[in-house]
Amino acid sequence: MLLATSLVMLMTPGLAFFYGGLVGRKNTLTIMMQSFVSLGWTTVLWVLFGFSLSFSHGTGFMGGILGGSQYLFLNNISSSMLFPGNDQIPMLLFVVYQMMFAVITPALITGAFADRVRFPAYMIFLTGWLLLVYFPFAHMIWGGGILEKWGVLDFAGGIVVHVSAGFAALAAVFYIGRRKIVHKGPHNIPLMALGTALLWFGWYGFNGGSALRIDDITVTAFINTQVAAAFASVTWLLLDVMLKKKPGIVGFMTGAVAGLATITPASGFVSVQAAMIIGVVAALVTYAAVLLKNRRNWDDALDVWGVHGVGGFIGILLLGVFASTAINPHGANGLLHGNPMFFVKELVAVSVLAVYAFLVTYGLLWVIDRVVAVRVSPEEEKMGLDEIEHGERAYID
Prior knowledge:
The protein is mainly α. The chain contains 14 helices and two strands, in the order ααββαααααααααααα. The protein is globular. The termini are far apart.
């Protein structure tokens, strides 16, 4: 679990490199900073009250949505205290493992509004979004909240991480609007490739570690992670060959991330054969989502909604189809195994929470904009945010 935690931590710098390579030269440090700063600020919020709101027991109606004050400032957690869900690991290890999920989730959103958001506004957004979206989602699905009690499953964050970030990203795209400066494409594809490698590597801790132990379910989640990513990346590559007439490395890497995001909620609940199908479906659906975004001229700069939002959504639905207690006795049987009600529960949960993430994000940005300008001016956008916001440059011309 210490290794898995370290792998998930590595994903946030990996995301910074992934996004950093995709944006223009004048905004490289800005987008990377938005990922890296979450390692610091989200950790602060997590140990002050985030973990408590996510994983302690709440009371009354709100107790099904948010946890209580039991673990504020990590009080009532001793170094020898064991995690109740697995008495083989310390509670503090569970705290820091889940912290890394909280760190990377809001960082995912930043790819949608690349090149045009002020850093002070982002910091307020980061704080508000964790409080209003991430902490409630984590509690409702993983922390003993209303959806967990209803029987909703999400092995490693299809809803909690990818749907929440993806549909928040779509809301940000609609609120903030299109860039004034035409984006010329990735400025450093090798940097993106490095980021992809770190993300892919870290995802073994993301999915495999979510078993919270080493057993057959851990191994299933581990191999399903690789299989879905491989099938999705190859499928995306074939789609590029058919539609663009050339196999592109950016497409291959995007397909891999789409497969990783889609298998995440199902990785510990489905067979390897199901993971193959999930990988192919992930590429087909997310590819179509990106095409739709382009035709509608939505300026989701780095395809956060298409890859993570749609990928996570489809992953939850496919979990509802392929889940099997023969693979994980602590899971459920899905539609193909004679339990249509489980599919309905997954569909309702992911639909409601996707809408919630979209609406709350849109409203949060509107409120922040009343306090401090969210978007930079056209002149500042033209100059580049690295120098305007941070007084630094990634490259010396």
